[in-house]
Amino acid sequence: MxxxxxxxxxxxxxxxxxxxxxxxxxxxxxxxxFVELRTEYYDLGLPNRDATDDxxxxxxxxxxxxxxxxxxxxxxxxxxxxxxxxxxxRMYPSPNATLRAIxxxxxxxxxxxxxxxxxxxxxxxxxxxxARHAYGDIYKASEIRVPGxxxxxxxxxxxxxxxxxxxxxxxxxxxxxxxxxxxxASILSFARACFxxxxxxxxxLWFSAKDTIxxxxxxxxxxVFARVYDEEFRAExxxxxxxxxxxxxxxxxxxxxxxxxxxxxxxxxxDGDVMSDLISAAFGSIAMMTSVLVSPDGCFEYExxxxxxxxxxxxxxxxxxxxxxxxxxxxAWTGAIRKRGELDGNEALRQFADRLEKACLETIEQGVMxxxxxxxxxxxxxxxPTFLKAIRAKLEA
Length: 397
Ligand code: NAP
Ligand code: MG
Prior knowledge:
Strand content: 15-25%
Order of helices and strands: EHEHHEHHEEEEEEHEHEHEHEEHHHHH
Bound molecules: NADP nicotinamide-adenine-dinucleotide phosphate, magnesium ion
Radius of gyration: 22 Å
CATH class of the largest domain: Alpha Beta
Number of helices: 14
Structural class: alpha/beta
């Protein structure tokens, strides 16, 4: 069998723990035998982030800007325990936060569905795509531990020196304080990305916030979405019989549960973080959720929605072969490969991505699946290498 050639490059971001193990296995079993894989490799594993003072993360992000397509393995976000475990020089920020800050993107997460994994919310006949504004808010907040009695203020100094100040709280005693921000330009590109993505999928768009409580902050989001809809998308939505709805976050949650699914739900950063886990759990497993970061200037970074699956890695280190589900990581690769094929007009590459996804889903439908899915279907689980070999056999057939 001759391998499919590639012209463009995929920026490859390696990661940590169990997913780093899967990464290598997926490449060896499912990619390298079939494609002349051309990647620009960045090792975002925690030891190398530490060795490079985290420069590797921003270098990788800029490489994605250059080549427009990247694929990322899950990575550890350091905390106090990881500082000790890896003897880190300092507490590095989450690599995903760095990527999002550099690419200023919108994160779209869609469950990977197959008929043999029934949805836990019976009414949801179609997947729900969560669009998460991956910029600012609580992820870029400044926090203060208030030691005792005193005054907290929020202030802004304009370039011309004008100051606006508000008293946040006269603290009677110790407490906590947080401030967060966002920017009109980022909200605007978020709104545009969501309307475009919904049109692409031919689905309604919902946007939820809490403007009744946060008149200025969430009110700005609501107004930007309304303006972008009226000025740029209303005509096309109406022509195609699609709807845009603004909802309060709590009624959106209630409305989503009673809906039939099949829409794009645009969420603010934190809501998107929470809702995407809810959606993936409802549709099966966190390991059945794709994730793509789309930047306003058309760069795409694909990854699995889950983390490095630390508990499985501990078992792996102890000599076991855990039943970790590689599906979302495979779909991260197929997403990047398909996009590369589209951008380069490489039809063979595009078709390979389709074939690999199909082989993966057919393997599951035939009852060969990992433990997270057998917990739902009652079948007998296989380990990850067995699952990958079954997919490869289908690809070769
Ligand atoms: P996690 O790695 O997503 O794992 C949470 C649990 O979900 C696992 O214990 C496992 O449950 C299940 N799970 C996740 N992926 C699975 C898969 N592919 N196959 C089977 N089961 C899977 O989240 P975490 O344990 O909270 O975080 C671990 C590390 O990942 C942390 O250091 C965190 O910083 C990092 N993280 C990275 C990213 C990212 O890079 N995008 C995202 C989230 C977390 P069972 O134990 O029940 O099998
Ligand atoms: Mg989350």
